[in-house]
Specification:
Elements lengths: L7 H25 L8 H22 L11 H4 L3 H6 L2 H18 L7 H50 L5 H10 L8 E6 L14 H10 L3 E6 L2 E7 L34 H6 L8 E2 L9 H14 L10 E2 L4 H6 L3 H18 L3 H10 L4 H8 L3 H15 L6 H20 L4 H4 L1
Parallel strand pairs: 4-5
Antiparallel strand pairs: 1-3, 1-4, 2-3
Protein name: PucR family transcriptional regulator
Family: Belongs to the CdaR family.
Pfam families: GGDEF_2, HTH_30
Length: 428
């Protein structure tokens, strides 16, 4: 149904009045919005220009009663770039509301007849609605563009971390800072499967993961590594997501323990973030000092994820350091070095027959008295030595995982010693 036409005389009055109406709108904005006065003179002039263009577009639309309002985003795109960066969507909505109110007050008064006044009132309301939609469209487009740009930056950062690209360390820190990452924050890496709800057609398939990180109070950088999801998370003490902040969070006694476990103290948020991954194991690398060292955590987490299938009962998340035996079986050389350096060597260097005690205890299937008889010591001596072993290595030979780790570490240490070339003193 066509809208009644407005007379040419009224249209002429509206054209002549657009400047005054726009000026009145800007004056009203200045009076009612405290933040408007903090804009620079150039920014306020940009608001006036957009308002004038909106009023002119309104008159142009009135000349064609059968057309739909076609303001779209032209008025907002004509604004200076600095103004668009300075103002939020909420502030823009406030400006549109005030401008519409001024239009409703001043434009109908220019009508020649009562019928024209009713037409102008309806037209202003309809045009104001289109202006609001145009503003929302502009900000939505800007948000999508920023999101796409951030996703590219994030992918570059994660890829550089995985590759340990030493040539672009400055660029990595700069890009991460642009994404909100604190350069001073320590970091750790989690690897798992992406959530099932992550559909490729969505604007941000990992929105749920980011939301979980926000609730946990940590910063994250997300990226794909083959079919898996790799998360670099900040690991700072005193941040959100701790058991003290969340009554439903796991208690300290409920957290898995183990050598090198990252799930204590400052990294308890890993428990919360593990739920954001898809089904399947989640492996956590060790905490490292800063993003530039995160490649070490990533390498161990990825190696652990490749080997975690050998331990179906692994907790979720599981530390890559708790997967050292499985990583050794999967051919991870760094796991061999870690077992020798962190487990076998401390036992060997501590002396006190700790290595012999561990082997005797395991050879006798954990029977304390039989182990003591074979070593010609009192059972309490065996108990004392086993406690020292647990203190030095974080593994107890009386536990299934601990016994496997200790047996493998001692064997690897001996294999390494046997393969080492003889020293000059031995040759002589």
């Amino acid at each position: 149904m066509s809208r009644p036409r407005v007379s040419d005389a009224t249209l002429r009055r509206l054209e002549l009045a657009t400047g005054g109406v726009a000026g009145a709108g800007v004056a009203e904005m200045s009076d009612r919005l405290p933040w408007f006065a903090r804009l620079t003179a150039e920014q306020r002039a940009g608001v006036l220009m957009v308002t004038q263009l909106g009023a002119a577009n309104f008159v142009t639309w009135l000349r064609d009663p059968d057309a739909t309002p076609r303001l779209t985003a032209e008025a907002f795109r004509s604004a200076p770039p600095d103004l668009a960066r300075r103002m939020t969507l909420r502030q823009t909505v406030e400006l549109v509301r005030i401008a519409t109110e001024v239009f409703e007050e001043r434009i109908p008064a220019l009508a020649g007849t009562r019928a024209e006044k009713a037409v102008l009132v309806t037209a202003v309301l309809r045009f104001g609605r289109e202006v609001a939609f145009a503003a929302a469209t502009v900000y939505a487009s800007a948000a999508e563009a920023r999101g796409a740009w951030d996703a590219r930056l994030e992918a570059l950062v994660v890829d550089s971390v995985i590759r340990a690209d030493r040539d672009s360390e400055g660029a990595v820190l700069s890009r991460a800072s642009a994404l909100g990452w604190d350069p001073a924050a320590r970091a750790m890496v989690l690897v798992g499967d992406p959530p099932e709800a992550a559909v490729p057609t969505g604007p941000d398939p990992l929105h749920g993961v980011r939301r979980a990180a926000y609730r946990a109070g940590v910063s994250v950088l997300l990226g794909a590594h083959g079919p898996h999801l790799l998360m670099i998370m900040s690991a700072e003490a005193g941040r959100g997501g701790t058991a003290a902040d969340d009554p439903g969070a796991p208690r300290a006694a409920d957290l898995p323990e183990g050598p090198g476990s990252p799930l204590r103290g400052e990294s308890r948020a890993a428990l919360t973030l593990a739920d954001a991954f898809g089904p399947g194991p989640v492996v956590a690398g060790p905490v490292v000092d800063g993003l530039l060292h995160a490649h070490r955590s990533a390498a161990r987490a990825l190696a652990g994820h490749r080997a975690v299938a050998a331990w179906p009962a692994a907790p979720r998340p599981v530390s890559a350091e708790e997967l050292l035996p499985e990583r050794v079986l999967a051919g991870d050389r760094t796991a061999v070095e870690a077992l020798v350096a962190d487990v076998a060597r401390p036992l060997r260097e501590a002396g006190g027959s700790l290595v012999e005690t561990v082997e005797a205890y395991l050879d006798h299937a954990g029977v304390l008295e039989a182990c003591a008889r074979s070593l010609f010591v009192h059972p309490n001596t065996v108990r004392y030595r086993l406690r020292r072993v647990a203190d030095l290595t974080g593994a107890h030979p009386g536990e299934a995982r601990g016994s496997a780790l200790l047996r493998m570490a001692i064997a690897l240490d001996r294999l390494g010693a046997a393969a080492a070339p003889p020293s000059a003193a031995t040759v002589g």
